[in-house]
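User: Predict the complex.
Assistant: Input components as received:
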Amino acid sequence: MMKINLDSLAEKYRDELLTNIIPFWENKSIDRDHGGFLTCLDREGNVYDTDKFIWLQARQVWMFAFLYNNLEKREKWLEIAGRGAHFLEKYGRDEKGNWYFSLTREGKPLTAAYNIFSDCFAAMAFAQLSKATGEKNFSSIAENTFRNILRRAGNPKGIYNKNISGTRSLKGFSLPMILCNLTLEMEHLADTEFVGEMITRCKDDVMEVFYDEASGLIRENVNDDGSFSDTFDGRLINPGHGIEAMWFIMDIAEKTGDNALAREAAKRTIDILKYGWDEKDGGIFYFLDIKNSPLQQLEWDQKLWWVHVEALVSLVKGYKHTGNQECLRWFTKVHDYTWSHFPDPEYGEWFGYLNRRGEVLLPLKGGKWKGCFHIPRGLYHVWKTLDKINLK
Amino acid sequence: MMKINLDSLAEKYRDELLTNIIPFWENKSIDRDHGGFLTCLDREGNVYDTDKFIWLQARQVWMFAFLYNNLEKREKWLEIAGRGAHFLEKYGRDEKGNWYFSLTREGKPLTAAYNIFSDCFAAMAFAQLSKATGEKNFSSIAENTFRNILRRAGNPKGIYNKNISGTRSLKGFSLPMILCNLTLEMEHLADTEFVGEMITRCKDDVMEVFYDEASGLIRENVNDDGSFSDTFDGRLINPGHGIEAMWFIMDIAEKTGDNALAREAAKRTIDILKYGWDEKDGGIFYFLDIKNSPLQQLEWDQKLWWVHVEALVSLVKGYKHTGNQECLRWFTKVHDYTWSHFPDPEYGEWFGYLNRRGEVLLPLKGGKWKGCFHIPRGLYHVWKTLDKINLK
């Protein structure tokens, strides 16, 4: 297992990105009639639903702009990102500038702006695209959206929040976690002092507030004062979230030259992974309960593509930062599971949803939540990180 | 298979009701400190969460009042129903008289009144209890709640409705379906003409509006004009819902002496069951897509207790009404699956959530959605219907 050839592995990730994943979305998802992307694609890549989800529209814009900025100045990639951005700009926001959750194929609003992650992914998309084009219009959309997110952060669901105030006030991990990443994505548009403050705040949330020292795990929800809430939400562990957040933290550590922070994030990646790994059937569970009580999530034991891809990124980055062999051992283990279960050798791209035993649960390549994002982003990061390791 | 002994089968359902299920809830779920019921019970019946969900509080009140009214005048049953009702009366409603979704153990409101089914189950509970006690207070709560439901029926989620109006207006099957049953539950409190009108309206919704003649299936959501919506929601089939609705319709048919209606409902029960049955692993799927497209429900292939219990009721009632051997064959098939998979021989009561292969997915006996309702109600109906068949 330790004889892994990191050179040929880097190639494997690059080839998968450039000859399987990206061509799939280039060929199958572009909506030439109405703009934007069709992301509900069945196993063969045929469109089975035409609704457009802001998360996925924005993430695909980000992905192609990112490839253009970081990999190669292919005009096609910029054109694809631009098509998505124009659709988003035209139809994606309500009168207050908040991003809807979903639109019809033509761009009519379907679901209101109850979900602040639509705004997060939109900000990411326009920030990345503004880097590619320098267009002032794109950077203002990113900036305004980012300001809106920070303004709404105290009550992200706004009027759609069904919790009665004053009874049980929990705060969720998702937003602080994503702000770690989004702050770095916005860096070129914000002033240094502000970025510094944001980074300190997000790092503290992710590494302290939601961290449970006793178990070494990250909680999805905690009481307002940071204490444990012995409730369905308070007991919830989402290993994929915790693991993904650790590479966001490693990126912050790299930026700020904080080696201790990188080492701590690598350690926590492994702690969460040990807890979240399914010893019986392999793979990483979707949800767990910290007290091992029955969960409300019926999908708790399923194996999801993004969880495994994010784990690969955190482990390879953890290995780069620390040289720790345990990171490499776990990387190999997750790599073996991922590559033997998710890719579809027949029709390309990867399956997204497997049952506990690793059998395909839904044969889709794209849907309401799976699009052109985690897999290509993850393949890119693993490839590039392996390259850096190999250069050492 | 056809040699089934219906006499001993009636006894089996009765014994399970009276010596397993009801004692379990009598012994494990009563909250002697704060009133109401603790419904989050693990495999052994220990409380693992103390939140109180209005659906489950009300359903348990209904269940014990129903047993008192229909089976035996046990003071203990009336006392249990009364305890739950007093908790609900004291803490369950907001200032507009709408029922919250959940409360803390002490009765503080947690989740706002976004869910009209809380109101439906509360109306059922207080109507059934008013029958037992004759208390005016209980009947007014039932009547006011029922009026509120009808007033809110056009937009059940109220301000929590996230759909942008005017883009895609779907109507859902759940409310008309439940109103079929609730109208009969409210009958003793309403005037005959009103009940007659309600029955006509609900019957038309269930048997015509949501019915897809081509497939013989019932849709979960249709366009406002009743046409098919080729969307995630429009394509959704919930076999358990459709099948359960068919015994509500048979009860209406019995009440109105409409034999043709009962026969049609029995036929449709079998049509839905044929479609919903898992030929590979047995049991009835939770969700399906009418075009066989990938679903958004990750739990689609799971086998749930209530789906199977409701199918048993519809099939045995269908057999009683029609004498159709196909009803009996399907009853036997669902009976065999149900009894060999759901009951827990070790700690009593039944498991609720199985994976596709019929293995226990969550070892709970009660939770956020499973309480003291479908199993005892179903066992009662199957037992009593078998008794009637055996008397013929």
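The CA atoms of residues 148 and 301 of chain B lie 36 Å apart.
Let me know if you want any component modeled separately.
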